[in-house]
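User:
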Amino acid sequence: MPRAPAVIGNLVESAMGRPAQLLDAREPAPGFLELELHAEPPPGGWHPGHEIQIRATPTQGRRYTVRAVGVTDSGSERITVLAATDADGPGTMWMRRLRVGSRTTVLAGRHRPLREHGSRRLYLGDGSALGTLDACARDGNASIVAVEVPAEAVGPLTDRWPRYRFLSATGAPGDALQTWLEQAIGDGEVETLDGAVLLGHAQSIQRQRRVLTDSLHLPRQAITTKPYWATGRAGL
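Assistant: Predicted structure:
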């Protein structure tokens, strides 16, 4: 995410810009950083799953998802953003330079919920999508959530979210998820699901959707997809 506060302070305010201040920063697992911010709410207020954008450099923006919304001790709203930091990009550099009390501007409009179908859903993604997956699936007890993350993060993340399946990334991006999905279909673990949400790596999403439509016979309109990054492409 953004760069040093000196750079952030020079950002040009937008009609959609919301003043924000960092309240806390923590590392819940290797390769992940969680920020808690007080930010002026957009029209309609903040919601889990809200998409925001920050200016990582004077010429580069990065998008993140609000994982949770809460209230500070003073009664004002706070938002939590969970981001993967395994990619050494401008967003990661910005995040790591922030300090408690840093002020910035986030861009946000009215919340537009992710399109979802069915009541018994399958949520799949990699570390880049964990915040979004948690925002969407936290209230769905009938859902199944599987996330591919670095091996060293599996333990800490499982301790925090025991209901989710955290898979150790091996080989190419998406391989661990693909293996798990094919096994789960073969074992009948996901046969009663009537919707799916696939997030994260673009090429992995294509493979997963093909398996769901061919093997599970899930209609394409019941599958929501949203790529966050792709092999061979920057800035997706």
